[in-house]
Write a structure and sequence with these properties.
Residues 22-42 are annotated as: Disordered. The protein is an alpha+beta fold. The protein contains 4 helices and 5 strands, in the order H-H-H-E-H-E-E-E-E. The termini are far apart.
Length: 169
């Protein structure tokens, strides 16, 4: 019987992962849930996968449903919103913010982004975005803002755990 050192175990696990990746890996799949049978190694998501999370969030804004948007946030998420000085730390307070924000029919567009994949289960998307907002009189205007989204994979779903947005000075 041979003793396995932690390094040898990691090397064996990596070899199993690479050998088992086969067609899924070759086809460009970047599933963040790809793991060995022993859950020793997980693949990091591709930056494009993280970038798509903004598109998902922006599409949720287009529904004009605050609960749909808030569902993208983890239960313990922190939201530092653009148009409120209140730090939102509960699901109900996040819903409250979006109930007001969505009245302006926001449409977001990324101007510049920097994605950092921290590991197989977490990533940061930060940069500049522009919002087209409609006032009570139906007049559309633009707002440039800085943003940071911190995402975490929980229960098989990428959720926002921290979102900071502030108007560009």
């Amino acid at each position: 019987m041979t003793r396995r050192t932690p390094v040898r175990t990691a090397v064996v696990a990596a070899a199993v992962l690479l050998a088992g990746a086969g067609p899924a890996h070759a086809s460009g799949s970047t599933s963040p849930d790809t793991r060995t049978a022993h859950h020793a190694v997980a693949a990091k998501p591709a930056p494009r996968r993280i970038a798509a999370l903004f598109d998902r969030w922006n599409a949720a804004l287009a529904t004009r449903n605050a609960r749909t948007v808030a569902a993208l946030y983890a239960p313990d998420a922190v939201l530092l919103p653009t148009q409120s000085s209140e730090i939102r730390t509960t699901h109900d307070r996040i819903v409250d913010y979006f109930e007001h924000f969505l009245q302006q029919k926001p449409r977001g567009r990324i101007q510049e982004r920097h994605i950092t994949v921290l590991g197989p289960r977490s990533a940061i998307d930060t940069g500049l975005y522009e919002f087209t907002l409609t006032d009570k009189n139906g007049k559309a205007g633009r707002t440039d803002a800085r943003y940071t989204f911190v995402y975490e994979l929980r229960g098989g779903h990428w959720l926002i755990v921290n979102h900071h947005s502030s108007v560009v000075p």
